[in-house]
Amino acid sequence: MTQKTDQIAATADVDPRAVIGTDVTIWHLAQVREDAQLGSGSILGRGAYIGPGVILGANCKVQNYALLYEPAVLGDGVFIGPAVVFTNDVFPRAVNVDGSRKSAADWEAVGVTVGDGASIGARAVCVAPVRIGRWALVAAGAVVTRDVPDHAIVVGVPARQVGWVGPAGIPLVTAGENLYTCPAAGDTYREVDGALAIVPTER
Fold this sequence. Notes:
This protein has 203 residues and is mostly beta strands. The protein has two domains: 5-165, Hexapeptide repeat proteins (UDP N-Acetylglucosamine Acyltransferase, domain 1), CATH 2.160.10.10; 167-203, no CATH class. 0% of the residues lie in helices and 32% in strands. It has strands at residues 13-14, 19-20, 25-26, 31-32, 37-38, 43-44, 49-50, 55-56, 61-62, 67-68, 73-74, 79-80, 85-86, 112-114, 119-120, 125-126, 130-132, 137-138, 143-144, 152-155, 160-164, 173-176, 179-181, 188-192, 195-198. The strands form five sheets. The chain has an eight-stranded mixed beta sheet, with no helix packed on it. It has a seven-stranded parallel beta sheet with strand order 1-4-7-10-13-16-19, with no helix packed on it. Strand 24 (188-192) and strand 25 form a beta hairpin. The chain is globular.
């Protein structure tokens, strides 16, 4: 584990088998389990939990008390809001049918995958197995039970798509039939078969 000790709070619990990139900040009471990987420039808030083998790309932000259970995989630049939960068990039970306590060998963990630049709002729950697309935006309190397309905005319980969003994080506005523009960056996108693609700028 290569890391400046002044960027890891004394109260944080970081397993020595975790792989911690450069310029990573880990705040009070956060826990990073064995074999987890934190990309360079990432930040873990107070009380965040990163399960065994969970992978974070570069420059991710995981806010206070978020719980990311294995085998979650995050791309670069992912934002995880406060108290977000990633599940990992399709059929959760504490015991087997004979009443014996379940062990790790009694179930198969499934994970949440998050694409580059996506944002998950506060207290959202992502029910594995599920994929959150690149630059997608999951609203606070949403419950995601199916895959979210790249650039999609989803809200509610269960989460449903209500619009599109660009890398700037601002909802795109309609600019014609199947065309959308970003008010912040000025980029234009075209929707084709439920997917969004940027329209190249003419030179």
